Fold this sequence. Notes:
By secondary structure, the chain is an alpha/beta fold. The chain has helices at residues 2-12, 28-34, 71-84, 113-124, 156-173, 187-197, 218-224, 244-256, 270-279, 290-301, 307-321, 331-338, and strands at 44-50, 57-60, 63-69, 88-93, 129-134, 177-180, 204-211, 260-264, 284-288, 325-328. It has an eight-stranded parallel β-barrel with strand order 1-4-5-6-7-8-9-10, surrounded by nine helices.
Amino acid sequence: MGAELGACCMNLLNLPPRHEPRRLRRHPAMRRMLREHHLRAADFILPVFLVEGKGVRTEISSMPGVFRHSIDSALQLCAEAAARGVSGVLLFGVVEDHCKDATGAASWEAEGLVQRAIRAIRAEYPQLLIIADACFCEYTAHGHCGVLDAGGDRDDYATLENLQRQAISYAEAGVDVVAPSGMVDGMVMATREALDAAQHPQVSILSYAVKYASAFYGPFRDAADSAPQFGDRKGYQMDPANRREAFREMTLDIQEGCDMVMVKPAMAYLDIIRDLRERCDLPVLAYQVSGEYSMLQAAARAGWLDLQSSVLESLLGIKRAGSDAIITYYALAAADWLG
């Protein structure tokens, strides 16, 4: 009776009676052979938070397992990344309050924190791709991503001039990639023109082309001490409800001369990653942001999720959506798990 019922159901579904997809899943070697997407250490870029001092390695309370590093400690982290085959590092400078001002001038000093780190990493680990985040929220007293006008709105023209100074200082220090992240209209064109005029045409631009005003940035603002002192950034970061707008943002940055585009965050925006992947042939990167990291950490520490399985599954989902590389705080751990 059971066999007859099974055959009846198969006929009702109009499927061949011997079609069973699970036959291709039974053996581990079969699953490995037929796997459509793969993760590898070279897919990952590790964010690094830099602070002044020596021997500093301070855990960030809202990001367990992630630390702020002085340059000497960051070099040890880079050694671990290079040994595991991680492709590169994304540098953020976290300066003390007395170094902050209304314009973020500390960000383009020749002997600034990030500039010194770039030179040190370049000397010790030339195999690593060095990417410098180009923004001002970590350097301004008000915590916004650029210069503000008298009414408290961002002055994009003044901000672009400072962005050019910042990009040139990074290039002179030896950076491989400048990553403007402030969602300033015209930021890619301004960066490209400045780099070329300063005789640094070899420096690439990774644009934070599609950066949403996300609730998942909370722990990062703790890590980088970059929370705005008033208001928010919804006036220049994208509305999470908007999908078509992402294509316009990406198109403008490509026209202005970027070499790679980024979607940030990743987890809640897999559809956007897929849209961009289908509509352009430039490399598409995704940033698995601080909130995504901390969420998985919290669930694992509570015993609700297996950390290794859930992290690798989330990274694979980002890759499957179409990302060529992933910026993730799990870069070292994931590289270890992947062997």
